[in-house]
Amino acid sequence: MSIVTEKGEHTEASEEINPWLTIWVQPRKTIRFMMENSKFGWVFLLVCLAGISNVLDIASNANMVDKVSTSIVVIVLTGIFIGAILGLVVWSLSSLLYWSIGKLFKGTGTLKEIMTASAWAFIPIVLSLILWIPDLQILGEGAFSAIPSAITPFEGIVVIFSAIVELVFSIWYVVILVKAIAEAHQFSAWKSVGTVFIPGFTIFFLMVFTIVILH
After folding, report:
1. Which of the residues 30, 88, 196, 206 has the least number of beta carbons within 10 Å of its own beta carbon?
2. Is 124 in contact with 172 (CB distance < 8 Å)?
3. For residue 68, what pLDDT band results from cuts at 50, 70 and 90?
4. Distant-in-sequence contacts of 1-9, Cβ < 8 A, 24+ apart
5. What's the whole-model pTM score?
6. Could you tell me what percent of the chain has a pLDDT over 90?
7. Do residues 162 and 170 touch, judged by C-beta distance below 8 A?
8. Using one digit for the tens of pLDDT, what is the confidence trace for 23-60?
9. Phi and psi of 5, rounded to 5°?
């Protein structure tokens, strides 16, 4: 059986695909294969790991060590627990939005397909967890503090390189997510941009509005 992945592009259902490799260069083809073949257990694992990665990034950007008297171990363990839960919640809500807004653009994807597609799009975010290994090894508590750690020039290069790689992963995640939703809904990437960014901007403006009201 042949599956249409993009206009003029077909792939056999039996073709084996390694999503960790092909997602970077053939996102629509990879997402179609995973929607047809992946087990939902892998989906939940990806979502939890992505949530952990995002929460650790938030803790780092918030300079958590400077605000809370605690150890780096507690921050990491708390990030793992809260990140997994928060990841599932945000994924569920965002998938619901991608599904419902996509319907306005004549999308045909089911909610399960949207949830699967958006989960596998998290691969760059999940892989960015690896970058925490050298960051924590070099910076220690400095990874969660505004006070810079004393590091050697070589360690500084490693930290800068890690930051650049994380930025690339973040940008590529957005590209993959747009392609993933487009494939799940079976419409163009332009319609997918609207489907992805409308809820994103809406949430952003609601957060800004809430902060202004609270102040």
Report:
1. 206
2. yes
3. confident
4. 3/32, 3/33, 3/36, 5/29, 5/32, 5/183, 6/183
5. 0.85
6. 70
7. no
8. 999 999 999 999 999 888 999 999 999 999 999 998 99
9. -105, -40
**Residue showing tokens 């294969």:** 33
Residue 148's pLDDT is 74
Please name the amino acid found at residue 28. Answer: R
The DSSP line for 176-192 is HHHHHHHHHHTS-HHHH
Side chain identity, residue 179? K
- Ramachandran angles phi, psi of 12, nearest 5°: -75, 140
What is the distance between the alpha carbons of residues 121 and 52, in angstroms, rounded to a whole number? 15
Residue with tokens 């045909």: 108
Strands (E), the chain: 2-6, 9-12
Query: Residue 7 pLDDT > 70, yes or no?
Result: no
Token output for 164:
């650049």
Where in the chain are the domains?
39-214
The SS3 assignment for 106 reads coil
